[in-house]
Structures are given as C-alpha cells and as structure tokens.
Amino acid sequence: MCRALRNCCVNRSELPGPVSALTSSPTLRVDFYLDLICPWCWIGLRSLRLAWESLRQKHPGLVLETIWHAHALLPQIPAQGIPYQAFYEARLGGQRAVAMRRAQIRAVAESVDLSLNFENIATFPNSALACALVNAAQSKLAPVAMYQLVESIYRAFFSQGQDIGSTETLQALAQASGFSWDGSASSQLQPSMEADHGTGVPHLVFNGQWPVTGAVPGSELVHVMQQAVAAKLG
To answer: Which positions, given as ranges, span the membrane (predicted)?
Structure first.
C-alpha cells in the first residue's frame, strides 16, 4: 500500500485562506485523491496547505478550490479491522523493516509539523466508512470546516490511535465539524482509484491537467501550481 518511492500509498471546498465571492477571480482547482489510512496523504495535505499559503502571497486574489476524492485502498480489510502491528510486519517483512519505514515517514512528517504516533494504533481499519464520510461531507460543509474535518480524521488515527473504521468515532468527528452524518457508505463510495486515475495516493491534479503523485515538498507543489495558474491566465 505505501511506497517509499515518491512518498505515496498505492493500491468542492477550499483550504483555509481568503475566500472570494467574485466569479471573475481566478480559480485554481485541485482534485485531491486520498485514503484516510495513508500517512503520506496527511503529509501531502499539509504540504498543499503550506504551498497554498506561499502562492497566495504572489496571487492574493486567487481562489483555491479543492475537490476531495476519498478511496479505500484496501476494501478487503474486515469491517472490524485487523491488528495494526502484525499487518505491517507481514507486509514489510518484520519489525526491523517496519521501524525503518516508520522512521522515514516520521522524518518527512516532522518537516511539515505533523506528529505521527504509530505505537498508539492498535487496529488497522477498513477505511471505506471514513472515505464515505469525506465524500459526503464536502457538499455539506463550508470550506474551512471541510479541511478541518479531513485533518481531524488523520489526527484521530495517526496521532491519537482512534479506530477510524468505527461508525461512532467518525460520527463524533463529523459532529465536531458541524456535520450530522448517519454513517451510511452506500451512496458515497467512489469508483476504484485505478479506474479513476490509475496511480497511487496522494495524487493531486491542478486545473485538470497538472498532476503530482506523492507527498512532494511544498516548494515543488508551488512550482506546479504556478505553472497551472500561468497556463490558465494565459
């Protein structure tokens, strides 16, 4: 699921900032493909926020529109989840390999001011419900609240060790963001990621034609975002 290469996991709203109601304001759209069990996706989300904060200093009137595409990378995981440590030891080849991978991820996470506490996680969840929540919420929540909801799910899992496969956990997070969610996944499941864009997550596409895969540094994202803006403005 998670690959070291390009720092990724395999298989409508705005980020916090000034909001313009003028339809004439230039808009940079980003389609953000993610899974809530992928630490690289949380890192990628934070890198996007930092890149956006840098870009808007040069383009203060620019509006960033984020379309969230949440996908469960491992839908075959049982609904009740499986032991987290055992899953990764089997997948990566033992405790030493797991420790090395976690050290790599932590180093990148710390560079964007994130704290990952893998030792707190007991259960590797089926993320279908968490993904369904994100896909359902984006049509209901205001931009900042939507961003905060996604952040809160990642924080609950990777920092606090909560079970994000639990309906009760997710409903509490949704309620804290101002969204009353019934826990239904049936109408909010996205098509398979491979059918949608054929790569891993995090995967970002700016203005429909400028793709970036992996948790790349904010400086690299700024460069791609500038290219997308320049192409749109002509």
So the answer is: none
